[in-house]
Amino acid sequence: MEKDNEGEYNPESTKVNFKMAMNHGQAKRVYKYVKIDDPETEGRRLCPCCGLPIDGEELPLGTPLKDLYHLGPGYALYFKFLKDCSLMFLLVFLVGGLYGLITNAESGDCPDQD
Length: 114
Fold this sequence. Notes:
It contains two helices and two strands, in the order E-H-E-H. The chain has 114 residues and is mainly alpha-helical. The chain has a two-stranded parallel ribbon. Helix 1 (18-27) links the parallel strand 1 and strand 2.
């Protein structure tokens, strides 16, 4: 793997390099694990500031959490948190929201709209 030398990376520079920023954005995506020693990965471009591959293959939406562990514990925990929050929201709506909708509809307290 080779570092992308489209302009030298200088962390103290205040000059904006949009191409380098776009490459960094692509490198920070959630991607499949890539072995550096693998011959298939030869010639891949790396981000000059973080060293991650720029053209990594994205993971599909239904990927199991164990396939995210190579990115660090934060990614897997974040997606588990989103899944658990969605499940909790659905549970709260089913328990409280449906009951409220049914009782309000059957109570007859709402005036008729003529």
